[in-house]
Large ribosomal subunit protein bL28 (Mesorhizobium amorphae CCNWGS0123), 98 residues
Amino acid sequence: MSRTCELTAKAVMTGNNVSHANNKTKRRFLPNLVNVTLISEVLNQNVRLRVSANALRSVEHRGGLDAFLAKADAKELSQRARLLKKQITKKLAEQPAA
């Protein structure tokens, strides 16, 4: 399982540890990934995703998983998230406008 957020494509970054003597050694900056269960109101189902804490805040800010995926760019999403986005847009298109 790669260390990548399924919603924002936030992944591992590399850099240097720099000592007081200015010695540089390679290090990795890992994203803060959390396994969460998000609820899709349109599909009436729970979805388990591995997302960063930052993405989780963004989902809450936008008003839930459905609203987040509607605005999200498909290039940043994982394969599972793309499939969810497709299902949600299809379901919304089927519903009559009230």
Summary: The helical segments are 53-62, 65-71, 79-94. The chain has a mean pLDDT of 94.
